[in-house]
Amino acid sequence: MTAAVTLRGVGYRYPDGTPALHDIDLDVAAGERVAVLGPNGAGKSTLMLHLNGVLVPVSGTVTIHDVELSRKTAREIRRRVGVVFQDPDDQLFMPTVAQDVAFGPANFGVDEGELDARVDEALAAVGMKALADRAPGRLSVGERRRAALATVLSCRPDVLVLDEPSANLDPVARRELAEVLCTLDTTLLLVTHDLPYAARICERAVLLDEGRIVADRPITELLGDTALLAQHRMS
Ligand SMILES: Nc1ncnc2c1ncn2[C@@H]1O[C@H](COP(=O)(O)OP(=O)(O)O)[C@@H](O)[C@H]1O
Ligand SMILES: [Mg+2]
Q1: Whole-angstrom distance, CA of residue 43 vs CA of residue 79
Q2: How far is the CA of 44 from the centre of ligand 2 (A)?
Q3: Does some domain include residue 34?
Q4: If both were cysteines, with which of 99, 139, 160, 196 could 143 make a disulfide (CB 3.0 to 4.6 Å apart)?
Q5: Residue 147: is its pLDDT beyond 90?
Q6: Who's near 71: CB < 8 A, 6+ residues apart?
Q7: pTM exceeds cut of 0.90
Q8: Is the same domain home to 41 and 95?
Q9: In angstroms, what is the span from residue 48 Cα to ligand 1's centroid?
Q10: Which domain holds residue 214?
């Protein structure tokens, strides 16, 4: 199996001294879908920001496929790892959905001729081709979330990371997003509080608390361990 994400001894402390990650070891194979679970303040978002090079570890290494993260490779890592942030409005700022979806690949140097194909492919993947010319502000919350996903898919990432993708979605929009995520064959890391949602999409779960990995198991097994979940404020 090809390794997609390899973390070795990753530690991180914010500039103000707050410790956020301690000695994280994690291996995710290409094509795997892994839920990253944990209570508020566990370090989930901090971990996610290391995967696309927004943060660089204070100790240890982060490797995406064969590229080790450093200040020099951060841009390359950012191209390979697509992050869908919690608030879709962070990723939608152009006059139309199609322009937003073209923005990433254009920025990474994809030429004009290929851009339309990239946009079509990404919008088709999220079931939004018909809304290409819509202003993002005139989409529903669920559509905005899928549009934000398309802005990342158009960069053809090797690894996709989503932070709380089901937050604020109604049941239909949640199901539509889960269906889209399950059709992708990209390596997926899903950061969430929503255990049933994670179980619908992921086969494996990593439980984080106080900046450490406290469990890494098949998700059905982890969700069945009520004592463990209670101990880490997850139920
Ligand atoms: N910019 C920051 N500066 C200082 N401390 C931070 C910052 N962002 C997060 N933290 C702290 O780092 C720890 C992990 O936070 P975070 O990764 O956001 O957790 P989660 O996403 O699991 O809720 C917490 O103690 C949090 O208060
Ligand atoms: Mg967070």
Answers
A1: 23
A2: 5
A3: yes
A4: 139
A5: yes
A6: 56
A7: yes
A8: no
A9: 11
A10: 1-83+160-168+185-235
In whole angstroms, give the CA distance from residue 181 to residue 183: 5
- Is the domain of 190 the same as that of 79? yes
> Does 231 lie in the same domain as 189?
yes
Domain count, the chain: 2
The response to whether residue 122 sits with its C-beta less than 6 Å from ligand 1 reads no
Give the tens place of pLDDT for each residue, 184-228: 999 999 999 889 999 999 999 999 999 999 999 999 999 999 999
79 and 89 inside one domain: no
Residue 177 counted as domain residue: no
Q: Which atom of ligand 1 is nearest to the CA of 211?
A: 14
Q: Which tokens belong to 182?
A: 């399950």
Assess whether the C-beta atom of 18 lies below 6 angstroms from ligand 1: yes
Question: In this structure, which ligand is nearest to the CA of 39?
Answer: 1
Tell me the average pLDDT across 98-118. 95
Structural domain includes residue 180: no
Q: How far is the CA of 13 from the centre of ligand 2 (A)?
A: 15
